[in-house]
Amino acid sequence: MAITSTLERAGRIADDEPTAQVVRLKDGRPVALRVAGAEDAVAVQRFVRGLSEQSRRYRFFAPVRELSLEQLERLTRSHPPDELALVGEITAETGESRIVALAQYVVCEPLDAEFAVVVDDAWQRQGLGMQLVGALAEQAARAGVTALNGFVLPDNWPMLSFLARLDCELDADSDPNLIRAVKRLEAHEAVL
User: Are strands 83-91 and 30-35 parallel, antiparallel or unpaired?
Assistant: First the structure.
């Protein structure tokens, strides 16, 4: 899958035209992957509010109901190559678009970036998370990042299983309430 070149042409990475790469999930449903922007703040807030309490806790490590303005700004900010936020978006039968997934990375150290992903409960286990992390990893590798790091709550078995399928290293963190996941990247190669 050539998500990287498509995102470079289609998203805000290269030319600021808000088109998207459409991917098909295991059940055949189409989802558009595109770069997030500030104009997505309302839709991202709606997405977060629509997550189950457990999904919000797994993603934000707290039982948040909605995001602060600062959190929304961070989740919709893309300044490649150091920061990239992607959304998975569907178009309902009514013609209204809706965000069903969100993934991002932020470079924290010269060669490492922290990443996170969350998928709407009704859209989980269909390959969307894998598609999003694949797009993130590809962009990060092209930017020279050698590892994506993330944190997971120890009781988040679905995410731990997902990360194992991604060949992430899973290690105890200095915080006993977190597990650190590390995905090593190869420069300029498709990683997933």
Answer: antiparallel
Cβ atoms of 67 and 45 within 8 Å: the answer is: yes
pTM of the model: 0.85
Domain range enclosing 43 = 3-184
The residue length of the chain stands at 192
Per the domain annotation, does 59 fall within a domain? yes
**Residue 13 in domain:** yes
Q: What CATH number does residue 87 fall under?
A: 3.40.630.30
CB atoms within 10 A of CB 77: 15
Alpha-carbon span 121 to 136, nearest angstrom: 21
Q: Could you tell me if residue 192 is inside a domain? A: no
pLDDT number for residue 63: 82
State how many domains the chain has: 1
Reported as a single tens digit per residue, the pLDDT across 94-116 is: 889 999 999 999 999 888 999 99
Report, in angstroms and rounded to the nearest whole number, the Rg of the chain calculated over CA atoms.
Answer: 16
- The full DSSP string for 63-79 is --SS--HHHHHHHT--B
Buried b (16+ CB within 10 A) or exposed e, 31-47: bbbbbbbeebbebbbeb
How do residues 12-63 score in pLDDT, each as one tens digit?
A: 444 443 457 999 999 999 999 999 999 999 999 999 999 999 999 999 998 8
